[in-house]
Amino acid sequence: MNRLSDRINALAPSATLAMSQKSSELRAQGVDVINLSVGEPDFFTPDHIKAAARQAVDDNFSFYSPVPGYLSLRQAVCEKLRRENGLEYTPDQIVVGNGAKHELCNAIMALVNPGDEVIIPTPAWVSYVQMVNLAGGKSVLLTSSMEKNFKVTADELEAAMNEKTRLIIICSPSNPSGAIYNYEELKSIAEMLSRHPDVMVIADEIYEHINYVGKHESLAQFDAIKEQVVIINGVSKAYAMTGYRIGYIAAPLWVAKAVNKMQGQYTSGVSSIAQKAAEAAYNGSQDCVEEMRVAFERRRNLIVGLLQEIPGLELNMPDGAFYAFPRVEHYYGKRCGDTLINDDNDLALYLLNEAHVATVAGSAFCCPGYIRLSYATSDENLREAAKRISAALAKLA
Ligand code: PMP
Ligand code: GLU
After folding, report:
1. How far apart are CA 293 and CA 139, in angstroms?
2. How far is the centre of ligand 2, averaged over its atoms, from the C-alpha of 97 (Å)?
3. Does 253 map to a domain?
4. pTM for this one?
5. Which structural domain range is residue 320 located in?
6. Number of the ligand 1 atom closest to the C-alpha atom of 100
7. 128-187 tens-digit pLDDT
8. Cα separation of 376 and 292, whole Å?
9. Does residue 204 have its Cβ closer than 6 Å to ligand 1?
10. Based on the domain organization, do 379 and 331 belong to the same domain?
11. Of 236, 263, 284, which residue constitutes the final position of a domain?
12. Which listed ligand is nearest to 242 at the C-alpha?
């Protein structure tokens, strides 16, 4: 008998984490899998941040922290927003959670009523739609494509809106496409949103620092809509701290208060040690961020160049994040032995089984026809992965 709630029965598991799990299992069986599925920096956390975590243990940061995070961390976040983004926030507008994922879910829970519509430009990160489902909302997918650089316009967003629209989720730099909205594009979205003051927008800026085209632009910089914007960010990607689980929202006070109330009931303040490490990340030297960005840029050039040489794979040059997102429709209807490729899921599975390279099907990002490869791994792994993918695809006829 299924005694689970409808809420959980309706929830899909995370495809990125599932694919990563699958590749770990294969590796445990002795298969030499190259894991390009999950998106996380392969670098170790910088030494000065690790030292701060150790110091926090020695200094007995072992008690409950305030629910929204230590004031000193929220001040460091405000200082970061001022220094890097020219944005003014006060510490009571910041809530620190268990990664950006947690704060995204909190923000969606705090803003979306059952039946409310949430516009999600696609391709979109795997968890948005599921979080909206958890809140009982309805996702309205606004499809983009490689030809449109995987972006949507203010006009397209406005055309998708109606009286039920409550929220829009914009991810820039984007997971999975790497697309980055420039100043002019954000400005026109802001102008459009200023005509719809009841519609909120979540700006997922977790890949802020993985940007190969210039300065990060935030939707929150447009004063007319600042009260409508909830920024999501954190230390996972910029500082190679995925396991520390520190993310935050910077939001209008009423949203921050709501999220704080919710955290007070079901999670409390997040790990005290990780918070002190994150504080060191924001307050310390930022050289490590740039060093990792440069490495990601070199790897992007490497993997995109190698993939572009493979006949049948179509891909553009991503502007940010650490994903390549090639179109794979060319292989539909082709087979290798008994394996027939009908869609992107089949192709991702084929690459795992045949090439021992783990990727994620575009369908997981509401964008069938593509696959996602994370290039947050060594040059050597990328070269070997491209070689294996090329050989496996060449067998399809
Ligand atoms: N947003 C996007 C677009 C992501 O790719 C991720 C990575 N998992 C997150 C949010 C969450 O990041 P974290 O919870 O590790 O801070
Ligand atoms: N953001 C990463 C990814 O998309 C981490 C995995 C996840 O949280 O889904 O692969």
Report:
1. 33
2. 16
3. yes
4. 0.97
5. 6-44+288-394
6. 16
7. 999 999 999 999 999 999 999 999 999 999 999 999 999 999 999 999 999 999 999 999
8. 10
9. yes
10. yes
11. 284
12. 1
